[in-house]
């Protein structure tokens, strides 16, 4: 792993601080939703992409990276404008609460494809797994863990996606986008 990949992994893992920010109230975010989104992305980056050569070749990787990047550019532009300006421009508010509509499902699909492409590597190599016998008398299969994560993520997607729509309704459904952006 070269220094650039180590930096990418470090910064993605630092994104876990978003959960801490939600817990302590620095940002008014739902802790459970923030945890699921952050944990899912960290699993994809650390497990599927950084942990395997097969995840890096997944057709889902460019899709996930595009969706993540575009979403974060809009999101952080919104945050900066919210901090620096008296009112956030209406177009930026609209983008912040609308761009997820196509990007969230596409990013989710990209993440699932990365996990799917990575799972074969874990099955073949046993990487990050622990078989019996061992001194702990415990077994763990990262291959099955990846499958459990992917299948478990499926029923969570509608809940997280609908949560984003409820956030959108709160901000854009109350009239002036600039007034709503200051209250959020």
Automatic annotation (TrEMBL):
GO terms for cellular component: endoplasmic reticulum membrane. It comes from the Eukaryota. It is a multi-pass membrane protein. Its EC number is 4.2.1.134. One of its GO terms (biological process) is sphingolipid biosynthetic process. Catalyzes the third of the four reactions of the long-chain fatty acids elongation cycle. This endoplasmic reticulum-bound enzymatic process, allows the addition of two carbons to the chain of long- and very long-chain fatty acids/VLCFAs per cycle. This enzyme catalyzes the dehydration of the 3-hydroxyacyl-CoA intermediate into trans-2,3-enoyl-CoA, within each cycle of fatty acid elongation. Thereby, it participates to the production of VLCFAs of different chain lengths that are involved in multiple biological processes as precursors of membrane lipids and lipid mediators. PANTHER family: VERY-LONG-CHAIN (3R)-3-HYDROXYACYL-COA DEHYDRATASE. This is Very-long-chain (3R)-3-hydroxyacyl-CoA dehydratase. It comes from Anopheles sinensis (Mosquito).
